Amino acid sequence: MVTGSEARGEWDSEKYLSFALGPVSLRPQLEVAEVYDSNLFYSETDQVEDFVTVVRPGMVLFLGNRDEDFVSLRYTLDASYYSERDDLNNLGHSITHSTRYRLARTTLQAEDRLTLTRMLLGGTFSYIQRRIGQVSLSDNWRVDYDISPRTVVGVRATLDYTDYDEKDLDPFHLYDNLSYSGGMRVGYRPSDKIMLFPEVMAGQSLLERNRAAVPEAPNLNQYSFSIGAEGEFTPKISGQVSGGYEIRNYEDEREVPDGWIAGLQLRWQARAKTRVTLGYRHWIQVSRENLGLVYNAHRPTVSVLQQFGSQGRWSANLDGYYQFHAYDGLVVVGGRSIERDETLAGLALRASYRWQPWLLLSAQYDFFTYEGNLPTVPNYDVHRFTLRMAAGY
């Protein structure tokens, strides 16, 4: 007979949850969640609620050491099954790539994410109360070269792409969006823990119509200059802060205001088991609904992580954001010109227990809200409760 202790000794989690192929490891993943959603369609009235079972199996191909050089490639199947509204059931796919590599004086960091799914759109698109097919791609690459122990020169390239399914949108319309940028920065280290830098970036935002009856959108050119600092500012505070100015112009010479941009991400290790992260981002976004319209977006965020117990198995997270948009032009609705005004906010509270190094259990509450002044876009509140199990390394 095999005793309980012998059974545990025979169960080698890494043997079954991580397979080595020479220097490469294959790591299966599985996430299962049960979700209660109070407002599936982000409606102001006649809200529809339901229970959703989410199953996300996946596989990670990993080479290297997470604390040093590595390459990671992850595939995830995202399956959602609704208790009442089975017409909303969905299978999505995502592929994520991450790399960090250092050779002599050169450091490469890269992140890419490709997603194919059908989504219920919230936010400013909540009036489209159905699943919309969507292909999205996000890339962020950065290469730094150490000229000397104090001086670094680097280049950065980003790309964001969203393609909506034209058939799913009808009779509504959204522009597909492609935004890309590239730039250079020079960093100076006044100490081993802090880097100061100026950065210049240039890019374009391109909108592609989904219906022939909709006007074509001109390309928007963007040029920015910013200065910033990153690193460990005190023994307990680290992160990055930057600010600058962006110049914009449409290729058809349509006027569009310039504006300032800013970003902040500070992590405060208040205590050994308490971490607070404060963030703020201000950026300029091209509207995907209205031709020739841009808005300034402001998004302050806060996150608190608290661990409990001597082994750190229990933890609690509190995350929140508030976002508001300032439009640079008027929106025509029903023959009237309106100065659009809108805010979004979210709050998440999560309690987690790491039962084993490879098994995490959690319970989470999310609240989302939107408020605007356009009669065609409903205001809404959404409450979600989630029980989740995630297995894998």
Short overview:
The protein is mainly beta and 393 residues long. The chain has one domain (4-391): Porin (Beta Barrel), CATH 2.40.160. 4% of the residues lie in helices and 67% in strands.
Return Rg in Å.
24 Å
CATH architectural grouping: Beta Barrel
Number of E-type strands: 21
Beta-strand content bin: over 45%
CATH class label: Mainly Beta
Describe the protein's topology.
Elements: H1 4-10, H2 13-17, E1 19-21, E2 24-37, E3 50-64, E4 70-82, E5 90-103, E6 106-120, E7 131-146, E8 151-164, H3 166-169, E9 176-191, E10 194-208, E11 220-232, E12 237-250, E13 259-271, E14 274-286, E15 294-308, E16 314-327, E17 331-333, E18 336-338, E19 341-356, E20 359-372, E21 380-391
Antiparallel strand pairs: 1-2, 2-3, 2-21, 3-4, 4-5, 5-6, 6-7, 7-8, 8-9, 9-10, 10-11, 11-12, 12-13, 13-14, 14-15, 15-16, 16-19, 17-18, 19-20, 20-21
Summarize the structure in words.
This protein is mainly beta. It has one domain (4-391): Beta Barrel (Porin), CATH 2.40.160. It is 4% helix and 67% strand. The strands form 2 sheets. It has an 18-stranded antiparallel beta barrel. A hairpin with a 2-residue loop joins strand 17 and strand 18. The protein is globular. The relative contact order is 0.11.
